[in-house]
């Protein structure tokens, strides 16, 4: 269940980083992408401006605000995720409707809570 963390940063106090830590602990494959350079749990953060090809994506978990998401709608949808998690502060009705129109499950939830309670 490969998870792409959109908005990854190399800062341990940020929720995107904490999500990577939890995914790593639970042995769930993840790919960090963002605009900041650095590493998360030993993985290089892929630059979203390069629109890296990522295959077999199960989940996109969003850690960027709705205004920034708009630039990446087409790219994120091109990854063909099975679901998108809109973490608190990332809720976006426009993007949600676009994704659902392509058959992508959308959740307004917290990845950290989902992982904590075994509901991921």
Topology summary:
Layout: E1 2-6, H1 15-25, E2 30-34, E3 39-40, E4 43-44, E5 46-47, E6 57-62, H2 66-69, H3 73-78, E7 83-86, H4 93-101, E8 105-108, H5 111-117
Parallel strand pairs: 1-2, 1-6, 2-5, 6-7, 7-8
Antiparallel strand pairs: 3-4
Structural summary, described in words:
- The chain has 120 residues and is an alpha/beta fold.
- The protein is built from five helices and eight strands; from the N terminus they run βαβββββααβαβα.
- The chain has a six-stranded parallel beta sheet with strand order 5-2-1-6-7-8, sandwiched between helices. The protein has a two-stranded antiparallel sheet with strand order 3-4.
- It is globular.
- The N and C termini lie close together (10 Å).
- The mean pLDDT is 97.
Write down the overall mean pLDDT: 97
Q: Order of strands across the widest beta sheet? A: 5-2-1-6-7-8
Regarding quaternary structure, what we see is single chain
Work out the radius of gyration: 13 Å
The assigned structural class equals alpha/beta
Please bin the fraction of helical residues: 25-40%
Number of DSSP strands?
8
SS field, number of helical segments: 5
The SSE string, one letter per element, is EHEEEEEHHEHEH
Inertia-based shape: globular
Task: Report the major sheet.
Answer: 6 strands, parallel
**Low-confidence region ranges:** none
Strand content: 25-35%
Distance between the termini: 10 Å
